[in-house]
Design brief:
By secondary structure, the chain is of the alpha+beta class. Helices cover about 25% and strands about 20% of the residues. The chain is built from 18 helices and 34 strands. Helix 3 runs parallel beside helix 5. It is globular, with a radius of gyration of 26 Å.
Length: about 700
């Protein structure tokens, strides 16, 4: 599978999966090779496609139109506008429908995760060269056989148009990661302006007085060569994993809309609000129809330039379609109804970013027409804090809550092992970048905690002689488990301005927590309700369950806290879309992230860099987290030119996140999926985060013989 958005997308997870297990593979159309290679060049001759792969040339005839690929989803899409889908409407459901409609210079091949060429003439993305004046540039020759679905050529002008629209309109979200321009001071408090012209705005400087690394120019050298220029040498995270993998939009289709938006008071809002129903495609599928509340449909791009291209990735060789004539996305209210539809042949595959519930697996394994697929995942579920307001802004509050959430007990006993606890953001499934020693250390600092003294400084002791008035014969002991964590939580709160009336602090007696009462912050009573927004049990029972335990943990400490089950789309808008007054008013919420390309994880900057504050540039940092040390590491990571250097910096960032906790990382699961093998077949099914991670393999799925 060749992703059409370069895996830079960081789509919100819709969690419904329950189990991790070994992978299974579909042997139907899979050819294994001794090593993983990537395609290096493609030319079209006389209606046939000639592909160079690993030193060999293979010619294949483009596949013909075929069947309807019938799929199911569990939430409606919220936009048909690709611009909006990568920023304010970045839900996984929008990704499933729109993701296969746009090209990029380079893509990531599945299942091996190799960088390959798409619009670029070659898979060799090259390195930036020193221009001698402090700037660095890289030129990318482009293929001359690529067209949009309306037949117009895809050129360097489209790349330049996309990049400069992102810059000029201050587009945020995932656009920031793809086209990261030099950060400049573009807000004016006096006038209220938030997106002043980039060209005339002063650069934002780091602690040493240097501009932050970013693009300063994107030029169309010719119709089929584009050049990117940065203000300093870009590292691996920037090139090619930035603009090289960024989606390209059609200037021919969107040019007039962009100019109309440019003349408005809020260009980004106007652009995001435009109708994208007739948008041209540069990918294997074309957006066709959306009936809100019922279904969406895409159709095959029969002029797609890569039809028939042979790809070898991760030891698997396959041919690119699309082979289906169209794809339907029917909305189902729950998984039980969807599985019945799968068994009845009404759908071929069910999309869900964390798969199917364990209880439905028996229905699938007992049906000879269905095939279950089990894979590891590349994401995490988390609790986030609004760090712009108390008490969430207090480090002691976040530390205390981390200590009070017994992830091991919730995942092991309450959820019966269908999820596993996490303490850092980098998933274990990404073996290349994972650091087991560091991750185990984070977990041990909480789960193996031992204390000799209580929060009030007195030693833990047992009055075995039952002489309460004579402490001299008490036997000291070391507190562990819940008792140690409770006292450590109280100490963390006390060190950050919290207190309780005399005798009202939380305690641990008779092997149980005695809740606190009347908690104070800086001497003032805290009576306001703290809210935890989370998907409801009908949508995601895992996070719904965790939210109840989080609320109870806060009550045990003396806070007034309530967990509120919230519709998924409503929740996303509540925590990522500012109010008319320009604020984000949530307290805490639970969601999840699918982390994009495991080849080079770049999400730390997107989620946590101060420059990507949602209220500053519509970025994904909606917590308001802004730590100077972390921000400096982000810039170092962007400039890192070797794996070893990037790896070390990434885990320094993980250290800061674990200590400061803008997120409390909660848990993950494996992913169970199922497809109707009596109707369809995939070239491979063993892939990180499953079939859904490749957008359901719209371009690869074939009718079963």
């Amino acid at each position: 599978m060749r992703t059409k958005f370069g895996w830079r997308l960081l789509a919100l997870l819709a969690v419904l999966a329950f189990v991790f297990a070994a992978c299974t593979d579909d042997d139907g159309a899979t050819t294994t090779t001794g090593a993983s290679t990537t395609s290096e060049a493609t030319t079209t001759t006389g209606g046939e496609v000639t592909t160079t792969t690993g030193g060999e040339t293979t010619t294949t005839v483009p596949p013909a139109e075929g069947f309807t690929y019938k799929t199911g989803i569990f939430q409606d899409i919220t936009t048909n506008n690709y611009w909006a889908y990568l920023d304010p409407q970045s839900t996984v459901w929008n990704a499933y429908v729109l993701g296969a409609t746009k090209p990029a210079l380079f893509v990531i091949d599945l299942p091996g995760m190799e960088v390959d060429n798409d619009l670029a003439a070659s898979a060799d993305y090259g390195a930036a060269s020193d221009n001698g004046d402090g700037t660095w540039s890289v030129s990318v020759p482009m293929r001359q056989d690529t067209t949009w679905s309306d037949g117009t050529p895809i050129t360097a002008a489209d790349v330049k148009f996309t990049a400069e629209t992102v810059r000029d309109f201050c587009l945020g979200g995932n656009w920031v990661g793809s086209f990261q321009w030099e950060t400049r001071e573009r807000a004016d408090e006096a006038t209220g302006a938030t997106c002043l012209p980039w060209e005339t705005s002063a650069p934002t400087l780091d602690a040493d007085g240097n501009p932050l690394l970013g693009l300063i120019a994107v030029d169309a050298v010719s119709d089929y060569e584009v050049m990117f220029t940065w203000n300093a040498q870009p590292g691996l995270a920037i090139w090619p994993h930035g603009p090289g993998l960024g989606p390209v939009m059609s200037m021919g289709f969107w040019g007039a809309t962009v100019e109309e938006a440019r003349a408005s008071e809020d260009p980004a809002e106007v652009l995001y609000g435009a109708d994208g129903a007739a948008d041209v495609s540069g990918g294997p599928m074309i957006f066709a129809t959306w009936e809100p509340g019922a279904f969406a449909q895409t159709t095959a791009n029969t002029t797609y330039y890569d039809i028939g291209r042979e790809i070898t990735s991760g030891g698997v060789t396959y041919t690119t379609g699309p082979f289906a004539s169209d794809q339907t996305y029917s909305i189902y209210s729950d998984q039980s109804a969807a599985v019945l539809a799968l068994k009845a042949g009404e759908v071929d595959y069910l999309y869900n970013s964390l798969g199917l519930q364990r209880g439905l697996l028996d229905q699938i394994t007992g049906d000879e027409n269905l095939t279950p697929v089990l894979n590891a995942t590349n994401g995490f579920r988390y609790l986030a804090f609004n760090m712009r307001k108390d008490p969430m802004a207090r480090e002691g509050f976040r530390d205390a809550l981390e200590l009070m959430i017994d992830k091991e007990y919730i995942t092991g006993s309450v959820l019966q092992g269908v999820a596993y606890p996490l303490y850092n953001t980098l998933p274990e499934g990404n073996a290349t970048w994972f650091n087991a020693e560091r991750a185990e250390g984070y977990a041990a600092s909480i789960n193996a905690l031992e204390l000799e003294t209580r929060y009030d400084g007195t030693p833990f002791a047992v009055d075995e002689a039952e002489t309460p008035d004579d402490p001299s014969d008490d036997v000291p002991y070391t507190a562990t488990g819940t008792e140690a964590r409770l006292h450590a939580a109280v100490m963390a709160l006390m060190a950050d301005g919290f207190s309780w009336p005399e005798g009202q602090a939380p305690d641990f007696r008779d092997n149980a927590i005695v809740p606190g009462n009347g908690i104070l912050l800086d001497g003032a009573p805290m009576t306001e309700e703290l809210t935890i927004l989370a998907p409801g049990p009908g949508y995601d029972p895992l996070r719904a369950t965790f939210s109840l335990f989080v609320a109870q943990a806060l009550k045990d400490l003396g806070f007034n806290a309530t967990a509120y089950p919230t519709d998924f789309n409503v929740l996303v808008n509540s925590v990522f879309v500012p109010t008319e007054e320009g604020t984000l008013d949530f307290d805490m919420y639970m969601l999840g992230w699918s982390l994009g390309s495991p080849a080079l994880p770049t999400y730390h900057e997107s989620f946590f860099a101060g420059k990507n504050d949602t209220l500053v540039n519509d970025g994904n940092n909606n917590m308001g987290f802004n730590d100077p040390a972390f921000n400096a590491l982000v810039e170092e990571f962007n400039a890192a030119t070797t794996f070893e250097e990037a790896y070390d910096i990434m885990w320094q960032m993980e250290d800061i996140l674990f200590n400061l906790k803008p997120y409390i990382v909660l848990f993950d699961t494996g992913i169970i999926e199922a497809y109707r093998s009596a109707s369809i077949t995939y070239p491979f099914t063993e892939t990180l985060s499953g079939i859904q991670f490749g957008n359901g393999m719209s371009a690869l799925v074939m009718a079963a013989e």
